[in-house]
Amino acid sequence: xxxxxxxxxxxxxxxxxxxxxxxxxxxxxxxxxxxxxxxxxxxxxxxxxxxxxxxxxxxxxxxxxxxxxxxxxxxxxxxxxxxxxxxxxxxxxxxxxxxxxxxxxxxxxxxxxxxxxxxxxxxxxxxxxxxxxxxxxxxxxxxxxxxxxxxxxxxxxxxxxxxxxxxxxxxxxxxxxxxxxxxxxxxxxxxxxxxxxxxxxxxxxxxxxxxxxxxxxxxxxxxxxxxxxxxxxxxxxxxxxxxxxxxxxxxxxxxxxxxxxxxxxxxxxxxxxxxxxxxxxxxxxxxxxxxxxxxxxxx
Length: 299
Known about the structure:
Elements: E1 2-6, H1 10-21, E2 25-29, E3 45-46, H2 50-55, E4 62-65, H3 71-83, E5 89-92, H4 98-109, E6 114-121, H5 126-129, E7 132-137, H6 139-152, E8 158-162, H7 166-194, H8 201-208, H9 217-229, H10 245-255, H11 261-273, H12 279-292
Parallel strand pairs: 1-2, 1-4, 2-3, 4-5, 5-6, 7-8
Antiparallel strand pairs: 6-7
């Protein structure tokens, strides 16, 4: 089927290629005018503008925005309101807040435009192995776009998770769990590295991937990271960013009175990683010195 794809970053470009190789027609646009023409050798059609993208699509149109959450996505929704027509389907495949997705779905519905929120997981490996898709929105709109999901995903790799917002909610919790998993691996391998045995960490990661209880794709990626960066990962700075989903997961846990200490502490560790030095630790050292005369280290 035919699809318009907005945003050709690391995810959007690979998704376009997977769709083209799956026999779909892709009309693509990116703010960088050099990116869309790159799809030409694989049969893609480059649009010179968002308006041009819509003109090149046949009704009912399906337009997928793969842009950052926040204002960039809001801008694409505003574009859809202006240029799409009744019966068209707009898909947000970014990591938007599910409340924003609910609001956007309602706004587009007033014009007869269907909205799907497609939580997309797979990263840079999606082109090869497929993308796990968690899709919220009207069932009828989901069925229109289903051939796209079927091509993008591996077998059994996509699901209609409920009404608008449900896709991004499920993806949000998915990413919150991801925080906890990565933090557990990080702590475990630091314990290994600092031990008297100092084992080959790449070998351990490879070993644990062979039938152990903790085997996972993340562990396979960790083995790859050790292969590239050595036992000490010396070329990588221990600064860990977050793109919002962990925070939103924790807020949802609070709103729903669900205890989520692991995910919460994982986010706190990410925040701590960005501090050149902890002021809170200075406070603790100063207090220990004040009440107990414990020694402090000077800068």
